[in-house]
């Protein structure tokens, strides 16, 4: 499925969506397709330095690394990250002189936090898991549709 279609269905503001998608798809320096397709054969190219390590170099999910995000950095609530805790995690994951990887991690996590923090202003563990298992966008689309129905119904 094309990222542009996914983002449109979730209700993410178009400027935020297209900038973030462009950054994530411009990984090999070539101008990407304007539809921003998700190309599974190239998914390993999306791995960058200064990331969380939740995916290994071959693209496999590493459960212990996912849990470590919260055991190491979620001090206020073991199942959620505050903005300050997220900043702490990003700082801890920095690789020396990896400015592009740091920037990529910062953009990915800050956009996720901005779009998906709950009403208490924290990013919940289940939401982050949805990023890694692919269910987050589907959930966001269902929430957007439910919101439309409640406004019109």
Description of the structure:
- The two termini are 30 Å apart.
- It contains 7 helices and 2 strands; from the N terminus they run H-H-H-E-H-H-E-H-H.
- A two-stranded antiparallel sheet has the order 1-2.
- 56% of the residues lie in helices and 3% in strands.
- Helix 1 crosses helix 7 and helix 4 runs antiparallel to helix 5 (99-116).
- With 153 residues, the chain is mostly helical.
- The chain has helices at residues 3-10, 14-25, 63-73, 83-93, 99-116, 125-133, 136-152; strands at residues 80-81, 123-124.
The quaternary state of the protein chains shown equals single chain
Strand fraction = under 5%
With strands numbered from the N-terminus, the spatial order across the biggest sheet is: 1-2
The chain-level mean pLDDT equals 80
The number of helical segments is 7
């Amino acid at each position: 499925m094309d990222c542009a279609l996914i983002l449109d269905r979730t209700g993410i503001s178009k400027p935020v969506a297209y900038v973030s998608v462009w950054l994530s798809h411009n990984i090999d320096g070539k101008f990407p397709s304007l539809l921003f397709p998700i190309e599974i054969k190239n998914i390993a190219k999306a791995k960058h330095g200064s990331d969380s390590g939740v995916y290994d170099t071959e693209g496999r999910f590493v459960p212990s690394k996912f849990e470590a995000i919260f055991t190491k950095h979620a001090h206020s609530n073991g199942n959620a990250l505050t903005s300050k805790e997220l900043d702490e995690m990003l700082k801890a994951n920095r690789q020396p002189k990896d400015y592009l990887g740091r920037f990529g991690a910062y953009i990915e996590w800050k956009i996720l936090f901005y779009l998906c923090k709950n009403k208490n202003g924290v990013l919940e563990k289940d939401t982050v898991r949805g990023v890694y298992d692919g269910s987050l966008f589907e959930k966001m689309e269902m929430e957007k549709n439910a919101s439309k129905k409640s406004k019109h119904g």
